[in-house]
Amino acid sequence: MTPLLLALGASLAWGVSDFVGPLVARTLGTLRVLFWAQVGGLVAIGLAVAIRGQGPAGWAVLFAVLASIGGMLGLFAYYRGIQRGAISVVAPIAGVSAIVPVIFGIATGDSPSPLQLTGVACALLGVALASIEHHEGSRRVAAGAGLALLAAAGFGFYFPWMHAAGKADFWWASLTFRTVALLLVAAVVAQQRTPLKLGKRDLAIVFAAGIGDTVGNALFAASSAHGLVSLTSVLASLYPVVTVLLAASVLHERVAPMQRAGIVLTLTGVVLISF
């Protein structure tokens, strides 16, 4: 039960940070927010590891390097998708990353239940409906939907590698992940010559988003110590439920009826995959 609760805790932390971070990025810029979020997250996990005072338990923590590459690709696409489209559309599509751990589990010997297979079908159909919007009598792909699918692919790649790293040592896996994430974002910032200056209030908000994301990473890595990747990953993928609820309550986002049906189907699919 403990690994599953930790995975659900990760989904809660990610759900909040994945609402706050992309929301402020709409005005502050994606790279600027991502950079300072990684700094805040790295400071937090670095202090935690230093206080713990133990070295890594094994070389497998380096799997977090691969997790970081996939995770940051997904996060960048997710942020850009939300800059272009509605959070309540982009977040559920990105949550389809839950399908990847199921496929990985099948490839490594797991047998999905009928409910999980139903969930995959619901999620795929839901994505198709949520991705289409009406515009002046015609239909077109919803803004941000393509980037949301790219985010789903990146997040899906993250789960099995972070799961493997967390089984070795979730503290050092989290530190490795955040260190590589900061280096990746810093390299892009340097190449783009992105201005990084933020006011104290904005910096505090972005730091909080980065710390929330890091808490989610640490909780997921911790859940990997004793849980199956096909269970912990899909439970952690429930974060879009939190994000969509925040978007509805705070931003009062409105989407077309067909897209609403797609959002419900997608979230239903993610939930069913977790059984």
Q: Unreliable runs, pLDDT <50, ≥5 residues?
A: none
Count of helices? 11
What is the total number of structural domains? 1
For the biggest β-sheet, the strand order reads 1-2
The value of Rg in angstroms is: 18 Å
The description of the largest β-sheet is: 2 strands, antiparallel
Word description of this protein:
It contains eleven helices and two strands. It has helices at 2-28, 30-52, 63-84, 87-94, 99-107, 114-130, 145-192, 200-223, 229-236, 239-251, 257-273; strands at residues 132-135, 138-141. The chain has a two-stranded antiparallel ribbon. The longest helix is centred in the middle third of the chain and has 48 residues, at 145-192.
What attributes characterize this protein structure?
275 residues; 2 strands; 79% helix; 3% strand; globular
Short description:
This protein is mainly α. It contains 11 helices and 2 strands, in the order H-H-H-H-H-H-E-E-H-H-H-H-H.
Topology:
Elements: H1 2-28, H2 30-52, H3 63-84, H4 87-94, H5 99-107, H6 114-130, E1 132-135, E2 138-141, H7 145-192, H8 200-223, H9 229-236, H10 239-251, H11 257-273
